[in-house]
Design brief:
CATH architecture of the largest domain: 3-Layer(bba) Sandwich
Number of domains: 3
Largest sheet: 7 strands, mixed
Distance between the termini: 65 Å
Number of strands: 24
Bound molecules: flavin-adenine dinucleotide
Radius of gyration: 23 Å
Shape: globular
Structural class: alpha/beta
Number of helices: 14
CATH class of the largest domain: Alpha Beta
Strand content: 25-35%
């Protein structure tokens, strides 16, 4: 069978690329080695983590906040089995949805592991499939510590952490990045004693310093313990758990039941046979040009296995662009307009340049802030931690960065995305009407504050 396009991997990069290619009239197949479609994101990443974050946020609200609203909730209990079951049902609904989309767009779903047998063919379960073009979207895998391999029971990656059979009493989280703090939040809300060990002096590297500092303070207030500038040196088994030896700023040791290793992910190209066909890798990533073409031009690559932030929506945007390029259209991705979100409470979201990056580029910037304390809707919700920070640059003060820590930051950041996409400036945002009272008024006020025209701050 000869296809126009074969996509390898059905994550948010692969399945979106396959649907778009088929929509454009290309004969398309998508090969997936797991039983369930949707990749890391739907099965063991974005979706199960957000389902558990949502459930535990309700629980934390009932326990800690409801009484401030005059709601007494005696005897609030967690049924962890039910919570996990609900998470699995959410995952199943969405992964079945991907299968439905393949049918709708006539994408041939092929179950099995793909291996290149030549530059124009792959083997799947002994069957040879040929195509004029390939899109590799095989994603990434969690990195293990060399002296502490995953058993997914007591030493877990995010995958194991999202499927624990019971709530652990103690969890040490190695790595204070996005995945570490999100999963730590889930279990902390369920009563697990959490210790986060981070080599750097700050958490969530890459985000604007003001957000990172603020998130650290808020998470500490929520009861999470942090060891920053600290490295896990040794882990010894004890009583079914571990004694961890920590080195660095705060040398110490601690006992834990479960260790979550969340030190990052690496591109996954195992078993694809890329070396045999001479496809070029760089530090494990597939090297691509601006059109997502690898060193073999009709083999494209997208998502976590090429450079850039490992994000589902980045993978999807690249999937659409690659499919359009193959179909002879102009596909492109505006990387400046790709938001980053952390689904803690409060949420953290950012887009564009951080203050440090803008200064390093010698941009002529102005900065505006609005604390959610000053936002009437946040006051009504009783959710006032955090702020909006906007960065405008150049003569017209176009928005080049927006950084939000606060309620619904994941939704609010879309305004920053649209402003960056459409090259809006701070004045245009400050002078656009917002519904009142809304959290989004904080964005308008931050822009106004930068320009000295806010009438509410
Ligand atoms: P993947 O989703 O990893 O999909 C790759 C697919 O390829 C897999 O299904 C795999 O089985 C398949 N495959 C691999 N090799 C072969 C082969 N040889 N043959 C056939 N199939 C193969 N991102 C966000 O944007 N927002 C979030 O909130 C978010 N939360 C996350 C939470 C966690 C805990 C984790 C781990 C990740 C999270 N991410 C989030 C990141 C997101 O999941 C990834 O960026 C995204 O899934 C990458 O998509 P992809 O299509 O490149 O690869």
């Amino acid at each position: 069978m000869k296809y126009d396009v074969i996509v390898i991997g059905s994550g948010p990069g692969g399945y979106v690329a396959a649907n778009r290619a088929a929509q454009l009239g290309l004969k398309t197949a998508c090969i997936e080695k797991e039983k369930s479609l949707g990749g890391t994101c739907l099965n063991v990443g974005c979706i199960p983590s957000k389902a558990l974050l949502q459930s535990t946020e309700h629980y934390a609200w009932l326990q800690k906040e409801s009484k401030n609203h005059g709601i007494e909730c005696a005897d609030v209990k967690v049924d962890f089995t039910k919570m996990m079951q609900r998470k699995s049902e959410v995952v199943k609904g969405l992964t079945d949805g991907v299968a439905g989309l393949f049918k709708k767009y006539s994408v041939d779903r092929i179950d099995g592991t793909a291996k290149f047998t030549s530059k124009n063919s792959v083997d799947v379960n002994g069957q040879t499939l040929e195509a004029a073009n390939f899109i590799i979207a095989t994603g990434s895998e969690p990195i293990a510590l060399p002296f502490l391999p995953f058993d997914e029971k007591t030493v877990v990656s995010s995958t194991g952490a999202l499927a624990l059979p019971k709530i652990p009493k103690k969890m040490a989280v190695i790595g204070g990045g996005v995945i570490g703090v999100e999963i730590a939040s889930v279990y902390s809300r369920l009563g697990t004693e959490i210790t986060i060990i981070e080599m750097l002096d700050f958490i969530c590297a890459g985000m604007d310093e003001s957000l990172s500092k603020s998130l650290l303070q808020i998470l500490k207030k929520q009861g999470l313990t942090f060891h920053l500038g600290t490295k896990l040196a040794k882990a010894e088994k004890k009583n079914g758990g571990f004694v961890l030896t920590l080195e660095g700023k705060e040398p110490s040791s601690l006992e834990t039941e479960v260790v979550l290793v969340a030190i990052g992910r690496r591109p996954y190209t195992k078993g694809l046979g890329l070396e045999e066909i001479g496809l070029k890798l760089n530090k494990g990533f597939i090297e691509v040009n601006g059109n997502f073409q690898s060193s073999i031009p009709h083999i494209y690559a997208i998502g976590d296995l090429i450079e850039g932030p490992m994000l589902a929506h980045k993978a999807s945007e690249e999937g659409v662009a690659a499919a359009e390029i193959i179909a002879g259209k102009q596909g492109q991705v505006n990387y400046m307009a790709i938001p980053n979100v952390i689904y803690t409470h409060p949420e953290v979201a950012s887009i564009g340049l951080t203050e440090k990056e803008a200064k390093e580029k010698n941009l002529d910037i102005i900065i505006g802030n609005c604390a959610f304390r000053a936002n009437p809707r946040a006051r009504c919700a009783g959710d006032t931690d955090g702020f909006v920070k906007v960065i405008g640059a150049g003569l017209k003060k176009h928005l080049v960065g927006m950084h939000i820590i606060g309620p619904h930051a994941s939704e609010l950041i879309s305004e920053g995305m649209m402003a960056i996409e459409k090259r809006a400036n701070l004045q245009e945002i400050a002078q656009s009407p917002n519904a009142h009272p809304t959290f989004s008024e904080a964005i308008k006020e931050a822009c106004g504050q930068a320009l000295g025209i806010s009438v509410n701050l």
